[in-house]
Give the backbone structure.
Amino acid sequence: MFTGIVAAVGRIEKIESLGDADAGVHLQIHAGGLDLSDVGLGDSIAIQGACMTVVSKNPEGFAVDVSRESLRLTMGLDAAGDVNLEKSLRVGDQIGGHIVSGHVDGLGQVMKFEPVGESWELVIQAPASLAPFLAYKGSITVNGVSLTVNRVDDVAAGTQFSINLIPHTISVTTLKDLKVGQRVNLEIDTIARYVQRMMSYQTK
């Protein structure tokens, strides 16, 4: 469990195959400013919004194994580069964002990313399957960052939603590097997921 508040920007430094073409990969990650003193083997860390298990540690970072299925369903875990990092939530921790599971629900596509005054407007197109879970002033996780939806527009190919990014969010996450056309990891709000299930369930 996470909150979507990025603790550090790390970097995937080394990628090794775990076997043949159908196998996953072993990632060596520089932790950036993330404090690993309380992280042990088997603990969870969200990388670009995807929950991964720590399989080894070193003085500067940690390693994880990523399955081929996870690589298929996410973005940003198959190449060297900067990544958003967040340690798993512990009892008593402050929830500064919203409840995040670290399970990517789908991939969105950046349609617009432009400065507006002192902030930035980010418009993402989400797949139609996620449309029921996107709401004005609702929560969404983009590449592991907890964000608030400012506008929702249903279009033929799915749903486009707009987010206002303040300068602080831009400066402390990888969102500053987004480009139009790029795909991003999306996780819907956990509460919305359960509400949809309760509303759609019919007893037999």
User: Anything to note?
Assistant: The first strand starts at residue 8 and ends at 17. The mean pLDDT is 93. The helical segments are 68-73, 167-172, 190-200.
